[in-house]
Design a protein that fits this description.
The complex is a heterodimer of chains A (156) and B (912).
Chain A (H helix, E strand, L loop, with lengths): L2 E6 L4 E6 L5 H17 L7 E4 L2 E8 L2 E7 L5 H19 L4 H6 L1 H11 E2 L2 E2 L4 H18 L12
Antiparallel strand pairs in A: 1-2, 1-5, 3-4, 4-5, 6-7
Helix pairs in contact in A: 4-5
Chain B lengths: L1 H7 L4 H7 L1 H19 L7 H10 L3 H20 L6 H13 L8 H9 L3 H14 L4 H15 L4 H14 L2 H15 L4 H17 L4 H9 L7 H17 L1 H17 L13 H14 L7 E2 L2 E2 L1 H15 L3 H17 L5 H16 L4 H15 L4 H14 L4 H5 L2 H7 L5 H14 L5 H14 L2 H18 L3 H15 L5 H13 L4 H13 L6 H20 L2 E2 L7 E2 L3 H13 L5 H17 L4 H10 L6 H12 L8 H4 L16 H17 L7 H12 L6 H11 L12 H8 L6 H15 L14 H7 L21 E7 L2 E9 L5 E10 L5 E9 L5 E4 L12 E9 L8 E9 L2 E9 L9
Antiparallel strand pairs in B: 1-2, 3-4, 5-6, 6-7, 7-10, 8-11, 9-10, 11-12
Helix pairs in contact in B: 2-3, 4-5, 5-6, 6-8, 7-8, 7-9, 8-10, 9-10, 9-11, 10-12, 11-12, 11-13, 12-14, 14-15, 14-17, 16-17, 16-18, 17-18, 17-19, 18-19, 18-20, 19-20, 19-21, 20-21, 21-24, 23-24, 25-26, 25-27, 26-27, 27-28, 27-29, 28-30, 29-30, 30-32, 31-32, 32-33, 32-34, 33-34, 34-37, 40-41
The chains are: A alpha+beta (156), B alpha+beta (912).
Protein name (chain A): AP complex subunit sigma
InterPro entries (chain A): AP1_sigma, AP_complex_ssu, AP_mu_sigma_su, Clathrin_sm-chain_CS, Longin-like_dom_sf
Main location (chain A): membrane
């Protein structure tokens, strides 16, 4: 996988994960172009798009579009499964996730993605293991946040 | 607190102090406040509050204001090295970055966070590093050190964060520096770290393939894991290694068996010492046969992610390897038959299985099974599955056409799918499936598709149909019918090449000309304003073969009673409508006007009406049409006696696919070319060319030759013996029928030349000033006027192929020149493709010791099977060996092609 983008129906970027090195300018350009192309497609169309030299696999969940760029020879259907797995994980973690959860806890969304994928490849196929790793790290964070005087010491 | 930031960001304090005493007071107050606030340990705005504030902004300007304010604050805290809130500020910056604002100034802060001992800091720091860092050298060096530290941490999650970051942003330098650490972690007892290290190794191998060797020993043991995370990452790593290095592929195939062969003690012998293929087969088999395991289940399928990865690796191992393929045949069959297909997951696995079956040396039964799976996919309700099926069938169609042919009806059905992506795939596949056996049925469907399809498909589809029809046409009648239907169905979306192809075919099929004219007449009777190409073909054909339409009974279709009989008046009524309809393009009107003029010699009466119609164009607003109107009118008045001879039928055009360089064929080429010039009357041509064009074209000459003559005369001195008065204007006049006395002579010469040009090139007329015009009509290798004196044509002049690529062939014919140390090269570029090449540009460079003179080319557009010529004169005073560099550029089928080539093998005896 070359990159993954999450964006809203209004075209606002909600999460971006790049596994290829591009200059910032190019990333922005790709993001902009893809968002307009995908939003222009009708809901009845299939989830695949041959775009430049990559294949775009996208799927809409409620108000959010999940969009992955994969190599030409990668399995498109499996990419849909990966997207679905990520959505399931978000859902489990936040408890019926909505777009607002991802906006206000974007860093958590990144952490979950990083436990599912590494370098653009899937690293863990068990939902339980991913959530366990996230929970353990959240706990580490909580433990070291001092209570009392610095009440809002965390990210808030 | 919020107000405080607002004041802070107005102006830098030093400016205020200098210019405004009031501000000065404010500044002092501010510094004071700042100090107080710092003592009171103010907390910066929380991340969630910032997000809330940004979301509350009603306009983009408002949002920008909020963000600029916050960024200014964040910058100031970064400057103050405020480490307590760094984490929160960087997190806010990351959110701002996602909104598209610059955040690069946070890069170093991320590194500071990473270096912090707190886990929260590290977590945000690494997240920031993955989002903000580019491949800048200096920062990378710093992060490499941080990563090295954390890779040695005792906390698994810190190691995990470092590995994750390395996997996302590893540059080649980082890869080299940290490969050893990663290799060590691949052997860690902790599965959480092992799987991450394996994917890091995958990433490093991707960046720096030479580092592959380090990882080989540690990789082998990954396949003996129980943990799916480690297994899948191990398979991914091996796949990457095998795919990019044939040596490693062999290593994995052999090494696994070698270890087994050594027969280590059985207690020590685990699965890693099995051969790799049986090992993978066993893992896959366990996955399929294992009962329900909630941890890895995805709607009834056990770990589809791992299954797909294993299938992919098997595909690479079985490719071109009969033994390995044999070992995996069974399991592939098992997966293909046992997988539940009601959900996307099952189809994902089947899809991968089909790809594997097609790629390895599998049994034929298995291949049929695979194609059948794809056939079932085609019937699936899920558009994604249908898309995948069509895509895969297109890949496999060349391997096993007959198996794919069986699903032809389904594929044709997909042409009617509402999803445009699927229609596009189906269309491509349909064209791949056409052969001489099914061309009739396939074409029927494709023509139906063409009629109904969206405009975006029409151009491509019609051109593809024309190509397929040309290849597989069972007979001429069918071929013509198909072309006519394309012209009718695709209307104005038809590309120009279809027009010329059709005209060429009609001209070539002598026995069908009456039938075609009748059919076209039928089409022309209806409104054709949205079918300009059809009108062009129709008028051309009726102009050429109209007498068959007028004076004999032509039956249309199979029913002999369905007879088309047209009267001259009916025909002229339609022409009148075509010529004056504002919907018709200029090019169509040009065709029509020429056709009308030709009809004047086919008609038995009504010539006067034609004359009147033509004359009306003498005052047409469009200069090109006006020119034609005036010139053609001349053919009815003072030069009426020329008309019958000038407007004779075109000789049948032959399509020359390969040119073996013989003169006879070159002449044929030029005939085709000359005639096509009529077909291709191109409104883009500069008006000057087209002005003189009409008659020249009628005489069978190619119009751009005039330009050649012109430049030739401007550049070369008029040779002795040639009347210097023969300037361009005279030449045009000569052809333009304004000269009463000499014109017949000229035309006679032309006609003679037209008659003989196919037999003799070294025609004595070439030495005659007027006869030289005859050479205009044939694009022999001789330059138009040079035959007069400066160049002695030699029969043994060698021809060289200078360039041959993508269907463009450039031939050089070398001729000695009378001038000392000078060689003339006649360049001829032939288009051997079926598409038009436009904007053809041929450029040449020679070493400094040579002098190069290039004449204008005969054109910039090469029609299919046509050619363009250009003269080159090269002086070589130093008599060195000639080297030449060529640059060629042209557009074909919408793509611009540029190429360079070098030519060093010129015969040396050319210089005198």
């Amino acid at each position: 996988m070359q990159f993954m983008l999450l964006f809203s129906r209004q075209g606002k970027l909600r999460l971006q994960k790049w596994y290829v090195a591009h200059p910032d300018k190019l990333k922005k350009k790709i993001t902009r172009e893809l968002i307009t192309t995908i939003l222009a497609r009708k809901p009845k169309m299939c989830s695949f798009l041959e775009w430049k030299d990559v294949k775009i696999v996208y799927k809409r969940y409620a108000s959010l579009y999940f969009c992955c760029a994969i190599e030409q020879d990668a399995n498109e259907l499996l990419t849909l499964e990966i997207i679905h797995r990520y959505v399931e994980l978000l859902d489990k973690y936040f408890g019926s996730v909505c777009e607002l959860d991802i906006i206000f806890n974007f860093e958590k969304a990144y952490f979950i993605l990083d436990e599912l994928l590494l370098g653009g490849e899937i690293q863990e196929t068990s939902k339980k293991n991913v959530l366990k790793a996230i929970a353990a790290q959240d706990l580490l964070q909580e433990e070291e946040t001092p209570q009392g005087f610095f009440e809002d010491h965390g990210l808030g | 607190m919020w107000l405080y930031f607002e004041e802070c960001s107005v102006l830098p304090p030093e400016q205020n102090r200098r210019f405004n005493p009031a501000f000065n007071m404010a500044a002092i107050k501010q510094v004071f406040n700042e100090a107080v606030e710092r003592v009171r340990m103010p907390t910066p705005m929380r991340l969630r509050d910032l997000i809330r504030q940004i979301r509350a902004a009603r306009t983009a300007t408002e949002e920008r204001e909020v963000i600029n304010k916050e960024c200014a604050y964040i910058r100031s805290t970064f400057r103050e090295e405020d480490s307590a809130w760094r984490c929160r500020n960087v997190a806010k910056l990351l959110y701002i970055h996602m909104l598209g604002y610059p955040a690069h100034f946070g890069q170093l802060e991320c590194l500071k966070l990473i270096a912090s001992p707190r886990f929260t800091d590290k977590r945000i720091g690494y997240l920031g590093a993955m989002l903000l860092l580019d491949e800048r050298q200096d920062v990378h060096l710093l992060i490499t050190n941080c990563l090295k530290n954390d890779l040695n941490s005792s906390t698994q999650f810190v190691v995990g964060l470092a590995l994750c970051t390395l996997g996302a942003i590893a540059s080649p330098e980082m890869s080299r520096d940290l490969a050893a650490e990663v290799e060590r972690l691949m052997k860690s007892p902790n599965a959480y770290i092992r799987k991450k290290a394996a994917l890091c190794a995958y990433r490093i191998v991707l960046k720096v393939p030479e580092l592959m060797e380090i990882f080989l020993p540690a990789t082998r043991s990954l396949l003996s894991e129980k943990n799916h995370g480690v297994l899948i990452t191990g398979v991914t790593l091996i796949t990457e290694m095998c795919e990019h290095s044939p040596d490693t592929l062999q290593h994995f195939k052999k090494n696994f068996s070698v270890v087994l062969g050594k027969g280590k003690k059985s207690s020590f012998k685990d699965c890693s010492q099995e051969e790799i293929v049986p090992n993978l087969v066993r893992i896959l088999k366990n996955l399929i046969l294992a009962g329900y395991s909630p941890e890895h289940d995805v709607s009834g399928v056990s770990d589809p992610f791992l299954q797909v990865k294993i299938l992919r690796l098997l595909r690479i191992l079985g490719r071109n390897d009969a033994e390995a393929s044999e070992a995996m045949n069974d399991i592939l069959a098992q997966v293909a038959t046992n997988t539940e297909t009601s959900k996307n997951v099952g189809n994902t696995i089947l899809y991968e299985t089909v790809l594997s079956i097609m790629d390895i040396k599998s049994e034929s039964g298995l291949r049929v099974l695979a194609v059948n799976i794809l056939g079932r996919f085609l019937l699936n309700n899920d558009k994604n599955i249908r898309y995948v099926a069509l895509n895969t069938l297109l890949k496999t169609v060349h391997l096993d056409t007959s198996a794919v042919q069986r699903h032809r009806t389904t594929i044709l059905e997909c042409l009617k799918d509402p999803d445009v992506s699927i229609r596009r795939r189906a269309l491509e596949l349909s064209f791949a499936l056409i052969n001489s056996n099914n061309v009739r049925t396939m074409m029927k469907e494709l023509l139906l598709f063409l009629e109904r399809s969206d405009p975006e498909f029409k151009a491509q589809c019609s051109s593809s149909i024309v190509l397929a029809a040309e290849r597989y046409a069972p007979n001429k009648r069918w071929h013509l019918d198909t072309l006519l239907r394309v012209l009718i169905a695709a209307g104005n979306y038809v590309r120009d090449d279809v027009v010329s192809c059709t005209i060429q075919l009609v001209s070539d099929s002598v026995d069908q000309q009456g039938y075609v004219s009748a059919q076209l007449w039928r089409a022309l009777e209806q409104d054709t304003s949205d079918r300009q190409p059809l009108t062009q073909v129709a008028t051309w054909c009726i102009g050429e073969y109209g007498d068959a339409l007028l004076y004999s009974d032509v039956s249309v279709g199979d029913d002999p009673s369905d007879i088309v009989r047209v009267s001259e008046d009916e025909l002229l009524d339609v022409y009148q409508r075509l010529l004056w309809s504002p919907q018709n393009t200029i090019v169509t009107k040009q065709y029509t006007l020429l056709s009308l003029t030709k009809l004047s010699t086919r008609f038995r009466s009504n010539v006067e009406r034609i004359r009147q119609m033509v004359q009306q164009f003498g005052s047409h607003l469009h200069i090109e049409l006006q020119q034609r109107g005036v010139e053609f009118t001349q053919l009815f008045n003072s030069h009426a006696h020329l008309r019958p001879a000038l407007l004779e039928r075109m000789p049948p055009m032959e399509v020359v696919r390969r040119d073996n360089g013989s003169q006879q064929q070159q002449v044929q080429h030029s005939t085709v070319n000359g005639v096509l010039d009529i077909a291709d009357v191109n409104s883009e041509e500069p008006a000057v060319n087209s002005d003189s064009n009409a008659l020249l074209v009628l005489l069978g000459g190619s119009e751009p030759s005039i330009v050649d003559t012109e430049t030739e005369q401007q550049t070369a001195k008029p040779p002795a013996g040639v009347p210097a008065t023969t300037d361009n204007q005279d030449l045009l006049d000569l052809l333009g029928l304004d000269i009463g006395g000499s014109a017949p002579v000229a035309v006679n010469n032309m006609n003679m030349n037209n008659n003989v040009h196919s037999t003799n090139n070294n025609n004595p007329l070439l030495l005659d000033p007027l006869g030289s015009l005859g050479s205009l009509s044939t694009s022999t290798p001789l330059p138009p006027l040079s035959g007069l004196s400066s160049i002695t044509p030699s029969l043994d002049s060698p021809s060289l192929v200078a360039y041959e690529k993508n269907g463009l062939r450039i031939m050089f014919t070398l001729e000695r020149s009378d001038a000392p140390s000078t060689i003339c090269i006649a360049m001829a570029a032939y288009n051997e493709t079926a598409t038009l090449m436009s904007d053809f540009l041929f450029q040449v460079a020679v070493p400094k010791t040579f002098q190069l003179q290039m004449m204008s080319p005969s054109g910039t557009t090469i029609p299919p099977a046509g050619s363009v010529t250009q003269q080159l004169r090269i002086q070589n005073p130093s008599k060195g060996a000639l080297r030449m560099r060529m640059r060629i550029s042209y557009s074909s089928g919408g793509a611009t092609i540029q190429d360079q080539a070098e030519m060093n093998n010129f015969p040396s005896e050319g210089w005198q």
